C-alpha cells in the first residue's frame, strides 16, 4: 500500500523529520488560499501514485496568484499516466543549496533491510544506482539489531555528505529506519532531502509504502488507504478479493495459483494471442467465487475470448464446474466464448457437471490456450 | 532415496486444531505421512485425527520424537510459530501460511542462519516424496515415484509440470514447493544442492518465476557445482514491470531486475534448457535422462 | 539500584501487571487509615532492601484495627538486618489458591537474559533452584531478538502451570521482560505471583533492580533512588564517589583498583588481621580524593590501623603522597597509625614528598599489610 | 612471539579527541605502539598527536590499514563504538571504558559470536606485549619481555603481579587485562587458549577474582586442553556475599556462586597452584618454568 506524499509527509513530520509548510487542496480556490497562508513561492504538487510527477508536468513552482491559478487549473483534473489528479499539495518552496537522497528498503536478495544515502538527490535514484552505484552509500541492517547509530553515521560519511549537516542527515536516516521498522514499511524514502542555505535539512518529498500483509497491525495506516485503482475493473477485483492485473490484450484468463496463471498468460502470448488480464482465484475457490471471476472478465470490454485453467489441489473441479454453470446459465447468449480446462482434484466430477452447451472443453493446458487464442482471433476479424 | 522427507519423517503439525490444519493433517496421514503430534498453545491433552496435541513444539519433540513440523498458523502468529520450530531441534519446518509480514520473515531469516533446521516456505504448498510422505497441501495422487527432482516457487504450476512428467512415466524423487514470497527459507540453490547429493535423483526440474534473483543464483550454482542435469521453466514472461503477479515475490521492479528474460538467459548460459511450455519441460527431461 | 517493593509495584502496575490495592504509610495512624480505605484483611509490609522480610517479622497479615495497630507499632522503627524500617506498604490481602514465581535476570555465564517460571512460588527461589532445579523452567533470551511469544508460552507450560492461567502468566512474563529490557533492569521478579480462587493472577510482591551503569538513561527510575545506605559511612562513600564496602574488622584499607584492594583485604586476613573495609579510590585519583579516602577510614570508629596500598598506573605516586600529607598534617596527633606502600608511576617522587614523620613506609605489599596488622593488634591489646 | 598484539599491529583509537584518548594515545606511541589513526564522528580531517582522525573506523581501516582499535569512548556511546569496531574488519578491539550498561554488553556479546574480531574488555586496562606494543592504559615501564603469559580480570593487581615477576627477572610474552565486568569479550579460556598456542609462552599466570564462573571454566579448560603450566591467584577471599567489590562483576551472589573458594578448588583440581599472596604466585611460576 502506497501512502500519498501528503500522508507520508505527515507521518514523517510527526516523527520529527523537518518538512516544509504545506496544505492539501482540491480546487483552484483552495490552492490560492493555501498559497496565501503559506506565502509565495510555493510548489503545487499532484497527489497521485505515479513516479516522475515532475517531468510529467504534475509539479509546478509558482511565484504569485496568477501562476498559482494557472498551475492549479492545469494540474487538477489532469491525467497523469492513467491517474486523474483530484488533489494537490501546496507547499512552501525551499531555498536549497543541495539535494540529498536518504531511504530504507528491504533488500530481497540479502533478506534484510538496507539504508541508503546519496549526495545525488533530486533525480531518479534508480538511474543513479545504475550509472554511478558508488554514489550511493549502503548499510545492510541486521533485522534483529536494527540500524545502529554507527551505521547511520557511516552511511552519511561514506556518501560524502558535508560534515556540517552529517549529524542531521544521520538523524533523519535513523528516524526513517524507525518508521520503516515500526510501521511495517516496505520503503521509506526522502528524495530530495534538501539542505538549505542556513544548513538545515528539509524533506521536500516523502515516500512511504506499507507491506500489505502487515496492515492488520497498522490500523492507523490502514485507514489512510485510499481508492487508488487505475480503473473500475481493478477496483472490482479488490472488492472480490482477487489478485488481478489488467493488461492490454483480448484473451481473458482465469486460473488458480499465481505461477499457473502467469504460465497461462505466457502461453497465450506463445501461441500468438494477447492476454487481457492476470486473474488468480486463489486456493480452494468455491462456486460463487468462480462465478465472480467470470463476471470480472466479462466486464472487461476488451475481452473477446476467455480461458479457464484450473489445476485442482485444494480447489475442487466440481466446485469450479458449478461456478461456471451458474455464471453462464444466467445469460441468454454467452457473451464471449469460454474455453475450460480442468485437471487435478475432482476434475472428472467437474467434467461431468459442466454444461457442455455453454463452454468449450479441452484436456490440456496447451490445447485450451490455443483454442482461446483462436476464438479471440476469430472475434477480431 | 529422496531429499528432506521420507517415510521415517515424524511430523508435528502446528495449528492442527484449525480448519485447514485438521483437514490437511487427515490428508497427509491418508497419504501415509507419519504425523505423530499436533502443537497448539492451550490445547495440550486434546486429540485431533487420532494424534495427540501438545501445548508446545518442544513437548511434541520430547514426547513423540517429532523431527519435522508443518505450520498452518494464521499470518499474524506464523513467524512466532516458525521461530518456535527453529528452536525445537527439528530437522525441517514447512510453513504453508500465506501473507506473513515481510519484516517478520527478515527476522526469521536471521535466526535461520543460526540454526541447522531447514525451513521450506512460507507461502508454499510443501513437499512430497511420492509413496513415502507429503508435508503440506499438495494433491498426492498426481505424483509418482521416480528419479526426477522438482523444485518450484509455485504450487499449481508444480502440479501442472508434475502432471506432464507423470503422463510420460517420469516419476519424482521429491518435489519441493519453496514458495512465492520475497523472503523464503529453502532457496533454489539449497534445494538443488540437496538434489545434487541425492544419488537417486538423475535429473532436476526447476520452475522459477519473475522477481528477485534466486533463479540467477541457481544458474550460477548449477554451472559451478552440479553434475545432475537440470531443466528449467520460468513463469511471467508477459508480466508488465511494477505489477505484482499474485505472489508477493513475483514482481519485476521498475529498475528492470527480476525479469523472465534475465532468468532464462542465465539458465541457458548455465546449460539449462528452459521450456516455453510445461510440455517442453517434460521433453527436456526425457532428453536429459 | 534496588527499587522498594512499593516503587516496583507501581512500575509493574503501570505496565499492566495486576497488583493488589495498596498504600504507603509512615505512621501507625496512616496504617490504620490505609487499612480502612483498602478493607481488611491487609498485609503490613516493611519497605526496606532486605531479603526474607517475612521470616524476619517484617510482614504481618492483619484482620482488624487492633491487629493493624499492633503490627504497625512492631514494624515501624524495627531494625531489619541493619536497616531501620521507616515505611510500610499496606496492601489488600489476596485470597489465593496457588503461588507462582516469575522472573527475568541476566545470566552472566551465558551473557544473556533468562526468563524463569516456577510453580513453587512464595518461597526463596534460590533454595528451589538448589534443591529442585527442575521445578524452575528457564528460557534463555537472545539479546537481539528479545523474549519471543513462544518462549514465554514454553516457559509457562514447561513449568507445569495450569492451562487456565497459562495465558495470563505468560503475558505477565512478557511484560516483566519488556520492563527488564526497556528500563535497564538487572532483575525483575514477582514472588509470589498469586493465583486467586477466581483464576486471576496478582503480583503479591515485586522486585526490580536497575543497572547502576544505565541510570543515566533512566531518569524516572533514577529519581526513585532513595538513601538506602546501611550506615553513615556508606552514605559518605556514596557522596565521595568511592567504591566502599564496610566490614567487621579493624584494619582500614585504601587502595587503587578493585582487584588490588580485594587482594589487600585478603592479605590482611592472611596475616591474621581483620579488614575493616574495602575502599577503592579508582584510577587517576588526585590529592583531594586521597585525603577524602583517609577521612572516610578515620571516620570508622572500629578502625585501629590503616594500610594505604597504591600501585600507580594512571594514578601518580606524587599525587597520592600529597593527599596523604594534606590529610594527616591537619591533625595534632595522627588518629591511627598509617602504613603506606607506593609502587608504579611516580612512586619515587611520591616517597620523597611523603612526610615520613606522619606515616610508616613499607616497600612491598606483604610488608605493608603485615605492619598494619601488627599495628591493629597492638592497639587492641 | 606474543598473543593478539605485536609491533606490526596498526592501531586506530576511537575517541582520540577526548582527554583520556589523547593522553593515552601519546603514552601508547611513546611506548612504541604503531598508532595509525583516530576515529571520532565529525572530527575527520583533524590531527591528534600527529595522527590523522577519521569520521568512521571503516575509513581508518581503508585509509591507514588499521587492524586493531582501542576504545576510549564514554559509557553511553561505548557499545556503539564496539559495534562499529566489530563491523570494520579489525582483528582486535580493546574497550577501556568503564560503566557500559550490562544490557548493551549482552547485545555486543551476541554480535561478537557472529564475527571474527577479538574483543578485550570492556572496563579493562588493555594489553601489552613488552617491548613491542601496548593497547590501553597499562604503565609500560613495569613490564619486561620474557616467556610468561599473564591474564587478569584486574588492572592494578596485574601491575602488582607483574612487579613481583619482573623483580625476579621473569619477563612476559603478553599481559592481558580482560576486565572486571560481568559480560566481557575475551574470557580467561580465550586468553589461555591463545597462550597455549603461542610457542614463546612457557608458563601462564591467571589472576581471577570473585564473581561468575569464568575461573571454574578456565580450570576445566586447563585440565583438558593445556600443556603449558599455569599459576593462579584469586582475589576476594574475604569478600562478604551480596556486596559488589568495586568491579561490576566482582560479587558473590546470595546463592553462593562465584566464591573464591570454589575457584581456588577448581584450579587446584586442575593442577594449578594458587598463591595466597602475589609473591607466592611468582614462587609458583619459578617452579613451573
From TrEMBL, chains A, C:
Binding site for ATP: 45, 52-54, 91, 94, 99
Subunit annotation: Heterotetramer of two alpha and two beta subunits.
One MF annotation (Gene Ontology) recorded for this entry: magnesium ion binding
E.C. no: 6.2.1.5
Residues that hold substrate according to the record: 256, 313-315
Pfam family, one: ATP-grasp_2
Name of the protein described by the UniProt record: Succinate--CoA ligase [ADP-forming] subunit beta
Pathway info: Carbohydrate metabolism; tricarboxylic acid cycle; succinate from succinyl-CoA (ligase route): step 1/1
Gene3D superfamilies: ATP-grasp fold, A domain, ATP-grasp fold, B domain, Succinyl-CoA synthetase domains
Cofactor binding notes: Binds 1 Mg(2+) ion per subunit.
Coiled coil stretches, renumbered: 351-378
NCBIfam families: PRK00696.1, sucCoAbeta
Catalysed conversion reaction: succinate + ATP + CoA = succinyl-CoA + ADP + phosphate; GTP + succinate + CoA = succinyl-CoA + GDP + phosphate
Binding site for Mg(2+): 191, 205
Keyword Ligase: yes
Keywords: ATP-binding, Coiled coil, Ligase, Magnesium, Metal-binding, Nucleotide-binding, Tricarboxylic acid cycle
Family indicated by similarity: Belongs to the succinate/malate CoA ligase beta subunit family.
One Gene Ontology term, aspect cellular component: succinate-CoA ligase complex
Cofactor dependence: Mg(2+)
GO BP terms, alphabetized: succinyl-CoA metabolic process; tricarboxylic acid cycle
Protein task: Succinyl-CoA synthetase functions in the citric acid cycle (TCA), coupling the hydrolysis of succinyl-CoA to the synthesis of either ATP or GTP and thus represents the only step of substrate-level phosphorylation in the TCA. The beta subunit provides nucleotide specificity of the enzyme and binds the substrate succinate, while the binding sites for coenzyme A and phosphate are found in the alpha subunit.
Domain ATP-grasp: 9-221
InterPro entries, alphabetized: ATP-grasp (IPR011761), ATP-grasp_succ-CoA_synth-type (IPR013650), ATP_grasp_subdomain_1 (IPR013815), Succ-CoA_synthase_bsu_CS (IPR017866), SUCC_ACL_C (IPR005811), Succ_CoA_ligase-like_bsu (IPR005809), Succinyl-CoA_synth-like (IPR016102)
TrEMBL record, chains B, D:
Positions annotated to bind CoA: 17-20, 96-98
Subunit annotation: Heterotetramer of two alpha and two beta subunits.
Gene Ontology annotations of biological process type: tricarboxylic acid cycle
Binding site for substrate: 159
Residue positions of the active site: 247
EC number of the protein: 6.2.1.5
Keywords noted in UniProt: Ligase, Nucleotide-binding, Tricarboxylic acid cycle
Pathway(s) annotated for this protein in UniProt: Carbohydrate metabolism; tricarboxylic acid cycle; succinate from succinyl-CoA (ligase route): step 1/1
Top-level lineage group: Archaea
Cited PANTHER family: SUCCINATE--COA LIGASE [ADP_GDP-FORMING] SUBUNIT ALPHA, MITOCHONDRIAL, SUCCINYL-COA LIGASE SUBUNIT ALPHA
Domain CoA-binding per the UniProt entry, residue ranges: 4-100
GO cellular component, one term: succinate-CoA ligase complex (ADP-forming)
GO MF annotation terms: acetate-CoA ligase (ADP-forming) activity; nucleotide binding; succinate-CoA ligase (ADP-forming) activity; succinate-CoA ligase (GDP-forming) activity
Organism: Halalkalicoccus paucihalophilus
HAMAP family registered for this protein in UniProt: Succ_CoA_alpha
A Pfam family recorded for this sequence: Ligase_CoA
Known role: Succinyl-CoA synthetase functions in the citric acid cycle (TCA), coupling the hydrolysis of succinyl-CoA to the synthesis of either ATP or GTP and thus represents the only step of substrate-level phosphorylation in the TCA. The alpha subunit of the enzyme binds the substrates coenzyme A and phosphate, while succinate binding and nucleotide specificity is provided by the beta subunit.
Protein's recorded name: Succinate--CoA ligase [ADP-forming] subunit alpha
Amino acid at each position: 500500500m502506497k501512502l500519498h506524499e501528503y500522508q507520508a509527509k505527515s507521518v514523517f513530520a510527526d516523527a520529527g523529520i523537518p518538512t516544509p509548510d504545506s496544505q492539501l487542496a482540491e480546487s483552484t480556490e483552495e490552492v490560492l488560499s493555501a498559497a496565501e497562508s503559506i506565502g509565495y513561492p510555493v510548489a503545487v504538487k499532484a497527489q497521485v501514485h505515479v513516479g516522475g510527477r515532475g517531468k510529467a508536468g504534475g509539479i509546478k513552482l509558482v511565484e504569485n496568484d496568477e501562476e498559482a491559478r494557472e498551475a492549479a487549473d492545469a494540474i487538477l483534473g489532469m491525467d497523469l499516466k492513467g491517474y486523474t489528479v483530484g488533489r494537490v499539495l501546496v507547499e512552501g518552496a525551499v531555498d536549497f543549496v543541495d539535494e540529498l537522497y536518504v531511504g530504507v528498503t528491504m533488500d530481497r536478495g540479502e533478506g534484510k533491510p538496507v539504508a541508503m544515502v546519496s549526495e545525488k538527490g533530486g533525480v531518479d535514484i534508480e538511474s543513479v544506482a545504475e550509472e554511478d552505484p558508488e554514489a550511493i552509500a549502503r548499510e545492510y541492517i541486521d533485522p534483529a539489531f536494527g540500524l545502529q547509530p554507527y551505521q547511520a553515521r557511516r552511511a552519511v560519511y561514506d556518501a560524502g555528505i558535508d560534515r556540517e549537516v552529517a549529524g542531521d542527515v544521520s538523524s533523519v536516516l535513523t528516524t526513517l529506519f524507525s518508521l520503516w521498522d515500526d510501521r511495517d514499511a516496505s520503503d521509506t524514502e526522502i528524495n530530495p532531502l534538501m539542505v538549505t542555505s542556513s544548513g538545515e535539512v528539509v524533506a521536500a518529498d516523502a515516500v512511504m509504502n506499507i507491506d500489505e500483509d502487515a496492515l492488520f497491525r497498522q490500523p492507523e495506516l490502514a485507514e489512510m488507504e485510499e481508492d487508488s485503482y487505475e480503473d473500475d475493473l481493478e477496483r472490482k477485483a479488490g472488492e472480490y478479493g482477487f489478485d488481478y492485473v489488467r493488461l492490454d490484450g483480448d484473451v481473458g484468463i482465469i486460473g488458480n495459483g499465481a505461477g499457473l496463471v502467469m504460465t497461462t498468460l505466457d502461453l497465450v502470448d506463445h501461441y500468438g494471442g494477447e492476454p487481457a488480464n492476470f486473474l488468480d482465484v486463489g486456493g480452494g475457490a468455491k462456486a460463487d467465487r468462480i462465478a465472480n471471476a467470470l463476471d470480472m472478465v466479462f466486464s472487461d470490454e476488451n475481452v473477446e475470448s476467455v480461458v479457464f485453467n484450473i489445476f485442482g489441489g485444494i480447489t475442487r473441479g466440481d466446485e469450479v464446474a458449478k461456478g461456471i454453470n451458474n455464471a453462464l446459465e444466467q445469460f441468454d447468449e454467452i457473451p464471449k466464448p469460454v474455453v475450460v480446462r480442468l485437471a487435478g482434484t475432482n476434475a472428472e466430477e467437474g467434467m461431468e457437471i459442466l454444461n457442455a452447451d455453454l463452454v468449450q472443453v479441452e484436456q490440456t493446458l496447451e490445447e485450451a490456450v490455443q483454442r482461446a487464442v483462436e476464438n479471440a482471433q476469430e472475434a477480431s476479424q | 532415496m529422496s531429499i528432506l522427507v521420507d517415510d521415517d519423517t515424524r511430523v508435528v503439525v502446528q495449528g492442527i486444531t484449525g480448519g485447514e490444519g485438521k483437514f490437511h493433517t487427515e490428508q497427509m496421514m491418508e497419504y501415509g505421512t507419519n504425523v505423530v503430534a499436533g502443537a497448539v498453545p492451550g490445547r495440550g491433552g486434546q486429540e485431533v485425527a487420532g494424534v495427540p496435541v501438545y501445548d508446545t513444539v518442544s513437548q511434541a519433540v520430547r514426547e513423540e520424537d517429532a523431527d519435522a513440523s508443518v505450520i498452518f498458523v494464521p499470518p499474524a502468529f506464523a513467524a512466532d510459530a516458525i521461530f518456535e520450530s527453529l528452536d525445537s531441534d527439528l530437522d525441517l519446518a514447512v510453513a504453508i501460511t500465506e501473507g506473513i509480514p515481510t519484516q517478520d520473515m527478515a527476522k526469521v531469516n536471521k535466526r535461520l542462519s543460526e540454526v541447522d533446521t531447514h525451513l521450506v516456505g512460507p507461502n508454499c504448498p510443501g513437499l512430497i516424496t511420492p509413496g513415502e510422505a507429503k508435508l503440506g497441501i499438495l494433491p498426492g495422487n498426481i505424483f509418482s515415484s521416480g528419479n526426477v527432482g522438482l523444485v518450484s516457487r509455485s504450487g499449481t504450476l508444480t502440479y501442472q509440470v508434475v502432471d506432464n512428467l507423470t503422463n510420460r512415466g517420469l516419476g519424482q524423487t521429491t518435489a519441493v514447493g519453496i514458495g512465492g514470497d520475497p523472503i523464503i527459507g529453502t532457496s533454489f540453490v539449497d534445494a538443488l544442492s540437496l538434489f545434487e547429493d541425492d544419488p537417486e535423483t538423475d535429473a532436476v526440474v526447476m520452475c522459477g518465476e519473475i522477481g528477485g534473483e534466486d533463479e540467477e543464483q541457481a544458474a550460477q550454482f548449477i554451472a559451478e557445482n552440479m553434475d545432475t542435469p537440470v531443466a528449467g521453466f520460468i513463469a511471467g514472461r508477459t508480466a508488465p514491470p511494477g505489477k505484482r503477479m499474485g505472489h508477493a515475490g513475483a514482481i519485476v521492479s521498475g529498475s528492470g531486475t527480476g525479469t523472465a528474460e534475465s532468468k532464462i538467459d542465465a539458465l541457458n548460459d548455465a546449460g539449462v534448457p528452459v521450456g516455453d511450455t510445461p510440455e517442453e519441460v517434460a521433453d527436456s527431461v526425457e532428453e536429459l535422462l
